[in-house]
Write a structure and sequence with these properties.
- The complex is a heterodimer of chains A (321) and B (298).
- Chain A contains 15 helices and no strands.
- In chain A, 71% of the residues lie in helices and 0% in strands.
- Chain A is mainly alpha-helical and 321 residues long.
- Chain A has a domain of 211 residues: MetI-like (MetI-like fold).
- With 298 residues, chain B is mainly alpha-helical.
- Chain B has 2 domains: 59 residues, no CATH class; 205 residues, MetI-like fold (Orthogonal Bundle).
- Chain B contains 16 helices and no strands.
- The relative contact order of chain B is 0.13.
- The chains are: A mainly alpha (321), B mainly alpha (298).
- At the A-B interface, helix 1, helix 3, helix 4, helix 5 and helix 9 of A face helix 1, helix 2, helix 5, helix 6 and helix 7 of B.
Chain lengths: 321, 298
Amino acid sequence: MRGRLLTILLLGPAILASLVFVYLFIVWTLYASLTGWNSIRPLNGILPDFPLVGLANYQALFATQRFWPNDIFNTAVFTVTFIVLSVAIGLLLAILLDQHIRGETLFRNVFLLPMALSFVVTGTIWAWIFNPNTGINQLLDPLGINAARDWLLSLAPLKPLWDVLDFLRIDLLRPGLTTDSRSALGAVVVAATWQMSGFVMAMFLAGLRGISEELREAARVDGASERQIYLHVLIPQLRPVLVSVVVILGYISLKIFDLVFVMTRGGPGTATDFPSIYLFVSAFQSQLWGQAAAIAIVMLVLSAIVVIPYMWSQLRTETQA
Amino acid sequence: MNGVAATRSSAGRRAGRGFALRWPRLAIYALLFLFTIFYLLPVYVVVADSFKTLREVNTTSIWQPPAGLDFGAWASALTPPLVGSGGIGPGLVNSVIMTVPAVVISSIWGSINGYLLSKWRFRGADLVFAFLLFGMFIPYQAILIPLVQFLEKLHLYGTLAGLALTHIIYGIPITTLIFRNYYSAIPTELVEAANVDGAGVIGAYLRVILPLSVPGFVVVGIWQFTNIWNEFLFGVTLTNDPSVQPVTVSLQNLAGSFAALYNVQMAGAIITAIPTLLAFIFLGRYFIRGLLAGSLKG
């Protein structure tokens, strides 16, 4: 009995800190998003002492081009392309490394190295690589790729493809790269993929290694080819890993801030603007705290859609185990 | 059953090269090398360009190797020659002062939470665990504005202590999670035995659990160190003065003060990355374990 009381007492600080810093703070943000707190006057009490304005901040937000559709569009394009690229590269690398590769550890460490870096470092480096005057254009020019690119862009049958990529802002054939609104988002996606695909590889590799050898051998004995074993036996087994990966990458991309802030600052114009950048500017530069709080709540809802079903199922399987 | 399984596995072994795809080995290695180039090209750029002189910056593209090993850009990145143009030197010191106590405290705190939640399973322990874990799944923007107000009221806004406190508190979910999973593998009987000897909650922790916790502390310590060192959002919003900004914010500012000088920016990027890179290179095994543990399924 004494043990139980002490246990709860010792957990108390963590419970209290979470209650205040996570749960109450979210409620606080929600409340602030319903007030007309859009000035630099400091708060008198602990709550925003400004009149309640209902959903006015949200209405204003969704009436602002920069946020709707622009920021939400960018978030959607970034999230989907970043996840698809990272999963494709991560899975491919995991399967390649699963082939009894000489120097597997070395390859693995090279692919994982970016995970040790800050998004600020990654952004600093990639900003220069995608700088149209000093970066990748200069590297590829001697190979004749710049001419090949112009030729590709001029091909009439491919025009619809370029139009779609231009529209999605990921057309990296545009030589302006981070300075062209048709390609800037693509540059950010590549940098983010460089940083995170190694992590995806590690997850899938751990998943592949966790599959019992007997399952593979059983399929072998049944006469399946190695390709079939991967397609029909191993990859389906990786489903839980895939779900985890997609949720984690989704969570990262829905709140992406530092990488974009350093690489493009949301530009050119608002071509790579995200809710996080708009929030930062609203709160810390324009003092539009009510509006910033509304953006925060929209971001929270977006993450919740991705994360809550996942967390729920994880905790359920965990308590069942 | 056993017999069948044994025959199958020996048949598999006889078939030779394990489970290799029937792709030509050369193609597999060629692909791996291609990706190696993709991953290492930015690393080459950042290292090579950090050794360039001002003159080379103006005459070469970022891809050309430096003429020699010139550390001028490194020096400029740390302490710029012009007064008031801001280098990452102070940020580096700030990051160390802020990160070290934050890592130590949050690791110990997570260890205690994880121990209590896995070895003293009271009714509702899973609920408490879920309650603590939730903070891991929110975008920090959702708590950022009240956090600024709160720290201001406590006169901790714009201080390294406030930043460290923030990292400690938002580190609770992940440190608790990793330690809880880690301690689940330690037999509860050990704790019970110590308890029979009258050790109690704290005694059992100190005598039984703590001595077995070193690998757990390494994993959590590296995870927290990497995350806190690399963090930017809290750093840029909770500090307003270069004298208390962490290194990631200083590096970002460096891009403003040295707009065209890519050698200085690259040198700054390397210096910022060195501490976490060293952790990755020398303790990579634990780094990867933390990475996988952070994705819940550990």
